[in-house]
Each structure stands twice: as structure tokens, then as C-alpha cells.
């Protein structure tokens, strides 16, 4: 039995030259643009956050206070997103990170989702207390601030919109070719802002109903609904980012296609295979093959590269065994 070992990585710059490179830069498409937009959205949101929280305490509105606290979590989330982009860029070429710095964004997304989940619990508890023991609310003032807050959310959403759509486009392209996956960091920032806009709309409706028709229960009820929405989204992001951080198999469909290519078209048996995400749009693959005849590993890599360009770091091991079953 003979062995042939090869370690290779295909980076975006390598495609132009048709070669496999050894650098470990696994940053998302449009990384710098996303970083700048995350910083700008953080600043815009932070400017109004303090105003809304203070106004919530002043007016006594649970819906407005919940919206302000929720906005505060967005400031933290957007700040984490911007920091993660900076750290990933700063350490992109560092040999300390065995498979690059592409997961800084997933780490930030996981942290912000945990913070959001804790906030949802706090808002739900306070809202339940307000349902049991109603408090006086200055509805007119609270309604005005909520409308302004919605405007800030819309501005922040537009700041992040293009960057999010760029990553979303890359996500679909990568999924079709290599299951690369979208940018959880940008997803966290964008959906944080959209969720905040949704809770702002609910707060406006609740305050208007209480002020004009005396439906005072709507205000704390809005807080409960908002907490539920926040909690559900938080769970989804925790799940997705945790799977990336734990190096779970990133795309079962892609794994099946790779196995089918190797065993069906390349006439080799897959003895061991690991497929995981290195960063937005980048996948790592380690595969051990058993073949009955001498197989050129370069041919195997060329076939993988042609079908799945998002396979950015590939390790191939071939064991030739003519009498193996």
C-alpha cells in the first residue's frame, strides 16, 4: 500500500492563476465595506438609544423603555459586529489562527445573540409585572419618541442594507457551488436593526391604542410580544453561529455531492471526510480516499475545485490498495 499526501488551499486570488495557494485569508466578500457600514450604524443607533431610554423612564412607558433597552442591545451588537470585522481583518494573515480569522464574525454573532436572549427575558418579566400592576404612562410624549426611534431604525437598516444583500447574494452563490454560507456577523447586525424597527412599530400601535381608546393593557402586552420576537430570533442565531464555532458539518447536501463525485466519478472510496466552515463563503475539506489503482491527487483537487469553488482549504490523502474490498 502506498500513500500520497497533499495539503492545499484555494483562495479567491488563486482562481485568477488557476493554482492552489497556502494563505489562510478567509474573509467575506466585501469585508471592508461591511465593516464601515457596521461602524456607521453603531454610531447612529447609539445617538438615539440614550434619548429613548431616558424618555422611557420619564414617561413611564414600558413599551418605550423596552424599545430603548432593545435598541441598547443593538448598539452592543452593532459594536461587536464592527469589532469582529476589525479583528478578522487585523489577524487575517496571522499564523496563530490555524484556519484563518474568518470565524470572528460568528463569535460576535453568538455573543450578541446571548445578550439579546437575556434582554428578552428581562423585558418579559417587567412587562408581566406591568400587566399585574399597571403604572401611569405619559402616552403623548412616549408616542412621539417611539416614532422618532422608528425613523432611526429605518436609517440604520438602510445603512446596512446593501452590505447585507451583498453577503446574501454571496450566500446563495456559495450554497449553489460550495455551501459556503452567509455572513452571520452581518446577519446579526441587520436583523437586530429590523427586529428593533418591528418592536418600534408595535410600541407605536400600543401607545396610540392606550392614549386614544384607553386600552392601557396594550402597552405591557406590546413588551411581552416584543420579548417573544426577540427571544425567537436570538435562539435561531445562537443555533446557527454555535454550529459554525463547533465545526459542525456545514452543508450535508454539499457533503453528499462531494462523496458522490469522489466515489462515483473518481472511482475511489471515501474512508474519512470532514467538511466545515472556515468563514463566510469559505469551506474546509479533509478527505481520505482508498483507490484500487494509482490516483493523481491533483486530478481529484481539480475536479473538486471545478465543481465547488468555495472549497478554500483542501487536504487530500490517497491510499492505493489494489486488493482492498
Chain-wise SSE layout:
Blueprint lengths: L1 E8 L2 H6 L13 H29 L2 H29 L13 H29 L6 H39 L6 H30 L4 H28 L6 H14 L3 E11 L2 E10 L5 H11 L3 E10 L5
Helix pairs in contact: 2-3, 2-5, 3-4, 3-6, 3-7, 4-6, 4-7, 5-6, 6-7
Structural account:
The chain is α+β, with helices and mostly antiparallel strands and 325 residues long. The chain has 2 domains: 2-23 and 251-320, 2-Layer Sandwich (Alpha-Beta Plaits); 31-245, Up-down Bundle (Alpha-lytic protease prodomain-like). The protein is 66% helix and 12% strand. It contains 9 helices and 4 strands; from the N terminus they run βααααααααββαβ. The chain has helices spanning 12-17, 31-59, 62-90, 104-132, 139-177, 184-213, 218-245, 252-265, 297-307; strands spanning 2-9, 269-279, 282-291, 311-320. Helix 2 runs antiparallel to helix 5 (139-177), helix 3 (62-90) runs antiparallel to helix 4 (104-132) and helix 4 (104-132) packs parallel to helix 6 (184-213). The chain is elongated, with a radius of gyration of 25 Å.
CATH topology of the largest domain: Alpha-lytic protease prodomain-like
Give the terminus-to-terminus CA distance. Answer: 14 Å
Main structural class: alpha+beta
What kind of oligomer do you see?
A: single chain
Order of helices and strands: EHHHHHHHHEEHE
Share of helical residues? 55-70%
Summarize the structure.
The chain has 325 residues and is an alpha+beta fold. Helix content is 66%, strand content 12%.
Amino acid at each position: 500500500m502506498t500513500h500520497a499526501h497533499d495539503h492545499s488551499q484555494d483562495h479567491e486570488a488563486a482562481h485568477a492563476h488557476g493554482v492552489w495557494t497556502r494563505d489562510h485569508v478567509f474573509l467575506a466578500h466585501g469585508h471592508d465595506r461591511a465593516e464601515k457600514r457596521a461602524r456607521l450604524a453603531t454610531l447612529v443607533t447609539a445617538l438615539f438609544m440614550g434619548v429613548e431610554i431616558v424618555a422611557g423612564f420619564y414617561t413611564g412607558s414600558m413599551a418605550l423603555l423596552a424599545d430603548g433597552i432593545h435598541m441598547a442591545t443593538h448598539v452592543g451588537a452593532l459594536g461587536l459586529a464592527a469589532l469582529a470585522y476589525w479583528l478578522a481583518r487585523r489577524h487575517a494573515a496571522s499564523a496563530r489562527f490555524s484556519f484563518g480569522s474568518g470565524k470572528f464574525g460568528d463569535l460576535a454573532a453568538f455573543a450578541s445573540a446571548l445578550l439579546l436572549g437575556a434582554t428578552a427575558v428581562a423585558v418579559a418579566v417587567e412587562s408581566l409585572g406591568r400587566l399585574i400592576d399597571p403604572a401611569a404612562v405619559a402616552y403623548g410624549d412616549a408616542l412621539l419618541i417611539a416614532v422618532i426611534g422608528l425613523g432611526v431604525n429605518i436609517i440604520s437598516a438602510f445603512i446596512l442594507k446593501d452590505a447585507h444583500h451583498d453577503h446574501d447574494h454571496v450566500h446563495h452563490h456559495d450554497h449553489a457551488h460550495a455551501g459556503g454560507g452567509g455572513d452571520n456577523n452581518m446577519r446579526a447586525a441587520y436583523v437586530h436593526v429590523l427586529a428593533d424597527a418591528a418592536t418600534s412599530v408595535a410600541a407605536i400601535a400600543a401607545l396610540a391604542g392606550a392614549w386614544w381608546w384607553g386600552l392601557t393593557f396594550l402597552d405591557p402586552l406590546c413588551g411581552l410580544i416584543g420579548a417573544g420576537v426577540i427571544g425567537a430570533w436570538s435562539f435561531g442565531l445562537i443555533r446557527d453561529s454555535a454550529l459554525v464555532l463547533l465545526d459542525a458539518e456545514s452543508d450535508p447536501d454539499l457533503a453528499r455531492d462531494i462523496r458522490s463525485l469522489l466515489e462515483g466519478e473518481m472511482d475511489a472510496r471515501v474512508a474519512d471526510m470532514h467538511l466545515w466552515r472556515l468563514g463566510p463563503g469559505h469551506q474546509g475539506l479533509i478527505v481520505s480516499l482508498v483507490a484500487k489503482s494509482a490516483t493523481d491527487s491533483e486530478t481529484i483537487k481539480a475536479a473538486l475545485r471545478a465543481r465547488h469553488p468555495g472549497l478554500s482549504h483542501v487536504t487530500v490523502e490517497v491510499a492505493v490498495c489494489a486488493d482492498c474490498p
